[in-house]
Amino acid sequence: MTHPAPYPVGTPGTPWGEIEKAAWLARQSLKRSYADEVLAVIDALHTRFDVEQYGQLDHHPGRYPLLALRSHAWDDALPIILVSGGVHGYETSGVHGALQFLDQHAAAYAGKVNLLVTPCVSPWAYEVIHRWNREAIDPNRSFRTDSPAQESAALMKLVAPWVDRVLVHIDLHETTDSDESEFRPALAARDGVAFEPGEIPDGFYLVDDEDKPQPAFQQAIIDAVAHVTHIAPADANGEIIGSTVYSPGVIRYAFKRLGLCAGVTNAAYTTTTEVYPDSPRATPWQCNAAQAAAVCAAIDYGLTHPPQA
Q1: Fewer beta carbons below 10 Å: N end or C end of the chain?
Q2: Average pLDDT of 283-304?
Q3: Which residues contact 192 (CB under 8 A, 6 or more apart)?
């Protein structure tokens, strides 16, 4: 059964045009600072990593440089680990979990892997705390040829030289209560369809690649994160966010077919994390630590289980 979701922009049943998108954009406001909360942290890490600007958001290039951090001693003989965060800018622990990994854990992998970390792929969305970019486009459905999202296109250009050399790509996300209260209703309004209420899972879970599942890899990450925070249970239908649960805390999406960030390379091991920051059982510290633990577990598994040639 579907229920209309009142949304303050647009006409129910009619997809948005440019007027509605402009009205939606006018409702957005700056709520936090990319410069103070992200760029300042990256600057503090610059003595330990090479910092590269791989793009900028053209509507305010000075305010929104797109930055990647790379291992100082990059060695073409070593496997590449890609860590992406903030594809959805409002998902805070994706950004700060990536930075926490670099600060607290990356040194343990020096000389073992090449690290390439993009901690905040969507900085405008980070500042306004939204899922979409300024054009009301979801960057995490836009990792495809001729991408309509400049955030996605810039990341694709950055990783293009290494798409076949990446060992592990872990993309850091969150599922929040606002997914159900704001973002999914906005999506239904934008596309002119009825909103179908869902259920937000309480806990951490992973999204595996439907077209190339790696269950043992996913399980290794779940096992590590379970020491930091709780794993989301399946709902009464045996699902999480409407998708079949294949093992505790693991669902599957078709990464490349859906244009998801986790499909941006041909990595042997890929996953998308989903932290639940609104849980009464999880603190902000746990959310960031869960993301960092997931990155470590992903790298450890990749190093101890090299893919077959």
Answers
A1: C
A2: 98
A3: 10, 12, 13, 14, 15, 16
